[in-house]
Design goal:
By secondary structure, this protein is of the alpha+beta class. Helix content is 24%, strand content 30%. Strand 7 and strand 8 form a beta hairpin. The termini are far apart.
Length: 200
């Protein structure tokens, strides 16, 4: 495992991109596990969405496609992102099969960023999924729960499918582990709504 100095080429140079570019240009190094290339440029290719708490970017590090969830400096949503990173670590054995692989949680210049592999396009309609893909998502949810984590937001927007047909579940920010359930509140337990719809 090696560390590389990171430079960023971002376009368009909107305000969110500018802030991210400034962070990475000043960051001394990022360690990117499981990446074989020696390239040192993290390319932020597009802004996927801008929400109330931050920005989601598509990026590339060599041939590796990434997603960056960046929370604005000083925003309380940073605590949710830290929580999501903790749950990714709890579910480390499921990364790369059930969940995207998380490269890490990085902080600097006030920004907090979770970087993970890009596993495909967001599922927008249930008809996009074959029966086997729906069954796979059901199994993925069962594996997450078997590890003692309740996802609590299993909706279509949190499923992605790759061109090869693999499906993953992402976005653990509302999730709850059994060990911390007594100290963290969550929405009402309706997380199987979309999974039941998979077989309707």
């Amino acid at each position: 495992m090696s560390s590389s100095h990171i430079s960023v080429d971002s376009s368009p140079n909107s305000s969110p991109h500018k802030g991210l570019k400034e962070y990475f240009s000043k960051s001394p190094a990022l360690t990117l596990p499981f990446h074989p290339s020696s390239t040192s440029t993290l390319l932020v290719s597009e802004c996927l969405c801008v929400g109330a708490t931050g920005v989601v970017f598509a990026a590339h590090f060599g041939s590796l496609a990434l997603v960056i969830k960046a929370i604005l400096p000083g925003h309380p949503g940073q605590s949710d992102l830290r929580h999501e990173a903790r749950l990714y670590n709890v579910l480390a054995s499921l990364q790369g099969s059930v969940l995207p692989r998380m490269l890490g949680l990085f902080e600097g210049e006030g920004w907090l960023m979770l970087i993970a592999e890009h596993c495909g396009d967001k599922v927008t309609d249930i008809s996009e999924l074959s029966l086997s893909q729906r069954e796979m998502l059901w199994q993925h949810a069962c594996e997450i729960h078997a590890k003692g984590v309740r996802h609590a937001d299993l909706e279509l927007r949190n499923f992605v499918a790759s061109a090869s047909g693999d499906v993953r579940i992402h976005s653990l920010n509302l999730g709850i582990s059994v060990r911390e359930a007594h100290v963290r509140s969550s929405p009402s337990f309706n997380c199987y709504w979309s999974l039941f719809e998979l077989f309707s």
